[in-house]
Structures are given as C-alpha cells and as structure tokens.
Amino acid sequence: MGIAGTDVAKEASDIILTDDNFSSIVKAVMWGRNVYDSISKFLQFQLTVNVVAVVVAFTGACITQDSPLKAVQMLWVNLIMDTFASLALATEPPTESLLLRKPYGRNKPLISRTMMKSILGHSVYQLSIIFSLLFAGEMIFDIDSGRNAPLHAPPSEHYTIIFNTFVLMQLFNEVNARKIHGERNVFQGVFGNPIFCAIVLGTFGIQIVIVQFGGKPFSCSPLNAEQWLWCLFVGVGELVWGQVIATVPTSHLKCLKEAGHGPSKDEITDEEMAEDEEEIDHAERELRRGQILWFRGLNRIQTQMEVVSTFKRSGSFQGAVRRRSSVLSQLHEVTNLSTPTHVILSAGNPTSATIGNPRGEGVP
Q1: What is the rounded CA–CA span in Å between residue 204 and residue 218?
Q2: Angle at 64 between CA 59 and CA 67, to 5 degrees
Q3: What pLDDT, in 10s, does the model give residues 245-256?
Q4: How far is CA 114 from CA 180, 189, 231, in A?
Q5: CA–CA separation, 74 vs 48, rounded Å?
Q6: What's the half-sphere exposure (Cβ side, CA atoms, 13 Å) at 335?
Q7: What is the pTM of this model?
C-alpha cells in the first residue's frame, strides 16, 4: 500500500497501490488484459491488410504490368491501417468479461491459432474478390477494362471499383477485428467506444470524397449508385464470412502455427541463464539475511522474557531492583566526595592552597 505501507514494505514489493484500495488490483488486471488484447486486435487487422495488399500489388504488377492499387491509394490504405485502425482498436474500454478467462502464460504467443485462422480466412476472401474484379470486373459491371491501359491514360472505373471494394472490405473487417477469441457477436459494446464509431464513419466519408472527387491525384473515376451498392455488398460480406470462419473449430486446423511466442528453454542462452541465476541468488541472499535478522530478534526477546520470568519466580525481582538503586546512590555519594570543588587548609599553616587551582592562589 502506497499510503499506509511502510518504506520497507514498498521496497520489497513489486506492485504498490497508490490509493490503498484492493479493488485497484482488479482494475489493474482488467486494464492489463485490455492492453494485451488491443495489441492483438491491431495485429490481426494489420496483418490481414498487409497480406492482401502485398499479394495484390505483386501479382498485378507481374501479370498486368501495372498494380491495381496506385501509390497514393496505397498511402491512404496505410493511413487507415496504421493510424486510424490503431486508434479505433486500441481505445476499447475494459470490460468485466476480461476477468472470465484464464491469464496468459509468460511464453503465450501473441498471435494465437484463432487469430491466425482469422487472418488467413479473411485474406482468402479478400484476395478472391479482388482477383475476380481484376480479371472479370469489366464483364460483371459492363465497363471498359483497366488492364493494359496506356501509361498516362485517365483513371478507369474498373480499377476504381477494385480500390473502393478493397477499402470497404477493410472497414468491415475492422469490425471483425474487435474480437480475437472466436466470438460471434462482433458488435458487442461497439457503441461504448465512440472513438471507434467516429473513425469508421469518418473513414467511410473520406472514402466517398476520394472516389467521387479525387480524380487524377487519387487515380479514381466517379462511380454510380449501382456500383457503390455492389461495393458495399461485398464489404458487408466480410461480416458474413467472419461468422463462417468462427464456425470452423480451431482444434481441427492442426496445420496452423502460433506466432510471436517467447523463447523456449532450448533457445535461452547461457548468459541469460547466468543472469537469472545471479538474480535468484541475490534474492535468496536477501531473503536469508532478513530471516537471520528476524530470528535474532526473536531470540533476544525470548532471552529477555526468560530472565524476567526467572526473577519473578525467585521472588527477588523487587529486592534486586532495590539493591541496584542503593548501590547506585552510594556510588553517587562516593563520586561527590572524591571530587570536591575546593579544600580549605587551617589558619596555622603558613601555606594555603586550593586543590584544583593551577595558579596556587591561597585562601586565608
């Protein structure tokens, strides 16, 4: 306890409660688990976006000699992925449901198998949609193809639909990323985080402005209402696909591996082992030193209690105290007599002096 606790207890403690309230321990556990889960949520969303963006850009550049996602569009996607998503997913308030699960171990992987299932599952869905639009989008929407276009050609509706669909899928996948333990209700508590709602709606509004009015700087061509509805329909499909992924048991996917785990015992170096042993030895020495001081204090108290009880049993405790006081008084009198302030000699003595007078001045 930071207020009522002693300095010795504070120095020996790993955690100090600043308000001396044990309910703060519950809040600390809730916030600690919430921070851990917020990092996992952001990683789940970010890795999905990275996998899809890299595969689309690389495959498109190899097959069509041009990336479907332009440089400025990729900057906007990175802004959504890095800045807005981190604020939206990291500002989730802690809930009491965090206390219902068991604590993670020290070597618990940061990316669990459930998260890996979600990352790969959503990546498969998004890549299937993007490649379908890339190679068959002109036939689906009855528009001109954007593939093999001249270098300085104006923005095409074909590639604008691909970009718009990709961004909308990320927005709805951001809602899926709010749950990392296979929960089905991804909207639970969504209105309790106004920052998340504001970021999602604000990103959607900016996306409308970029597509409809971005023009050549953003390599976008305005889309009609039907094309927007199809893009929204594919984006909402992310929520439905998330329920399909949650239905698949993680225990059946033995091929999935966890990532971000701590070092195993075989991977720990000798230096780290030596440091750990040194810390343990130092802690043991401090513990033993405290135990020795504690036992010495107990032995002294016991010895004093035994002496007192012995005097009481013999009935000479008060007599011993009186004898000690009389001896002390006699010693005090002897001390006063042996150290006089002055001694006066008789008048018949021709030499008079005072003891302790360095100048030898006589007194008549």
Answers
A1: 16
A2: 60
A3: 988 888 777 777
A4: 7, 21, 28
A5: 15
A6: 6
A7: 0.68
